[in-house]
Every structure is written in structure tokens, then in C-alpha cells.
Specification:
The protein has two helices and eight strands, in the order βαββββαβββ. By secondary structure, the protein is of the alpha/beta class. Strands 1-4-3-2 form a four-stranded mixed sheet, covered by helices on one side. The chain has a four-stranded mixed sheet with strand order 5-8-7-6, covered by helices on one side. A hairpin with a 5-residue loop joins strand 3 (51-57) and strand 4 (63-68). Helix 1 runs antiparallel to helix 2. The radius of gyration is 16 Å and the shape is elongated.
Length: 140
């Protein structure tokens, strides 16, 4: 038996672009399912190629899911609304590489640097408006 917890990001029409960008930054395997893959799922044919469900799974057990909100939910908040941050943490050297990749086109709110509690820490809002936090622990 197993259990998991991961972020699920909602977008208004650019989930594919965001997931492909995250795939380039995190690696792993990306699976995308469009609304037209399940006939009758969407009421508006213009949304057929939007992402109903996308999932990125990396070799080191990171999972990120995302979807496009349908037009009928145009007023619903998406991943850019704030209030939640995706946090990448640990002591692996790969974390700095993920920071560098996601920082491309991002608004860096706190540069990656030494934090008072001993970790290397940084925050950014990526090019899609999603908040990220990074915390790299010193190697044991």
C-alpha cells in the first residue's frame, strides 16, 4: 500500500506550455491527456486540444500535475492566483539546476542564497505566474 501528495496546478489555456517547460526543467516522463480524448467531456469543441490532465513524474519521485480549466470555469482562480507555493527541497545538487531552469523568464523574489537557518533558500514566480520555493540543506 502507498500514498502520495503532490501539487495539481490549474491554468487558463496554457497548461501544455507550462508542463512542457517543467518537463524541460525537471526531466522525467510527461503524459498529457486532452479534453477530446474522452468524447463528450467538453461542451465546446474549441477547447478540445486543451489539457484535461497532465502529469510529470521524475526518476526521483517528484510528481507535478496540471490541467486547463474549461471555459465554463473562466472565473475560477488558477495557479497564478497566489496563496500556494510549490516547494522543492532536499540536499541533492540537482535542486540548484532546477532553480536555474525555472528562473529563466521568472521574477526572482529572493535570490538563491544562504538563509539564517543554514539552508540555501530562494523564491521565484516562474514565467507562468506559479510561485516556487527552493531549500537546499547542507550535505551531512
Amino acid at each position: 500500500m502507498s500514498i502520495g501528495l503532490n501539487p495539481y496546478l490549474n491554468f487558463h489555456g496554457n497548461a501544455r506550455e507550462a508542463l512542457e517547460f517543467y518537463h524541460s526543467a525537471l526531466g522525467g516522463s510527461l503524459n498529457l491527456m486532452q479534453y477530446d480524448s474522452i468524447p463528450g467531456m467538453m461542451g465546446d469543441d474549441s477547447e478540445a486540444t486543451r489539457i484535461m490532465h497532465g502529469q510529470l513524474d521524475t526518476e526521483d519521485w517528484l510528481t507535478l500535475m496540471a490541467a486547463d480549466l474549461p471555459g465554463s470555469m473562466a472565473e475560477a482562480p488558477d495557479a497564478t492566483a497566489g496563496g500556494v507555493s510549490v516547494c522543492v527541497w532536499g540536499d541533492d545538487d540537482r535542486i540548484e539546476g532546477v532553480w536555474n531552469a525555472l528562473a529563466e523568464g521568472a521574477e526572482v523574489q529572493q535570490p538563491l542564497g544562504q538563509a539564517p537557518w543554514g539552508d540555501t533558500f530562494g523564491m521565484l514566480k516562474d514565467r507562468f505566474g506559479v510561485q516556487w520555493m527552493f531549500s537546499i540543506s547542507p550535505k551531512p
